[in-house]
């Protein structure tokens, strides 16, 4: 019997519906359940062919468990090694190399010194930074947000450089991005599952949270295809099995605003019934596919093109 597990925290609607849908398909030799952990021994398999990870970003113990599970043959969705290394600034840098439009972005050192460092730890960093060049490049209004993380936490809209200095003073040890504002006509949140299944959802981030999936616009066929291509290209290079990409359309051009969401919102009460049903059905089908193709004791993770091409280059050099 090949087991599919889902690792989650306080969310309920998606995990419960996912387990029910997998089991309702009555696939011979496949069963789904909440992940159960009673011990984690180095190098020992956990008993799951597939695990969908919805919570390890907040629980370091779970992240260590998942890496051990992956090492012993579990297909973890998403790859915990890549997810641990990934962050938003790298994603933006990568996007510039794969022809995906993104806002102008710079990364900033934390306002406060990191724990266990002093000024001498930053001998290679200019002080002050060339703020005028940075501001001229980004322009105002601008947005400042953490280079890693999500959930719209610690996101600031800045109107001018004085506003920037005041708000940056509040960010403590967070490493922040300063990013061009994209004044958009339309905005879309796009699910991508298995690197091949895409659902593009009109999304209005300026609405209250419970109404964000209620928007008065839909893409035409040509724009839909363009956005699908961008979503697939991003996930192909990042290697995510389960992710959302947010696209803002300015003058008809889709800019990738946020595309590192490996545990994206899948709650029935926020995404709506139709989107929820698609996510549950597509995730269930993909998890079954991964379980059926799982090779015991092998590497069953998904690796993005960026990593695979880098590894191929290294192997050629060696």
TrEMBL record:
Gene Ontology cellular-component terms listed: cytoplasm
Domain of life of the native organism: Bacteria
Domain ATP-grasp intervals: 92-297
Gene Ontology biological process: SOS response
Keyword field: ATP-binding, Ligase, Nucleotide-binding
InterPro entries linked to this entry: ATP-grasp, ATP_grasp_subdomain_1
UniProt cross-references to SUPFAM superfamilies, sorted A to Z: Glutathione synthetase ATP-binding domain-like (SSF56059)
PANTHER family: BETA-CITRYLGLUTAMATE SYNTHASE B-RELATED, RIBOSOMAL PROTEIN S6 MODIFICATION PROTEIN
UniProt protein name: Glutathione synthase/RimK-type ligase, ATP-grasp superfamily
Biological source species: Parafilimonas terrae
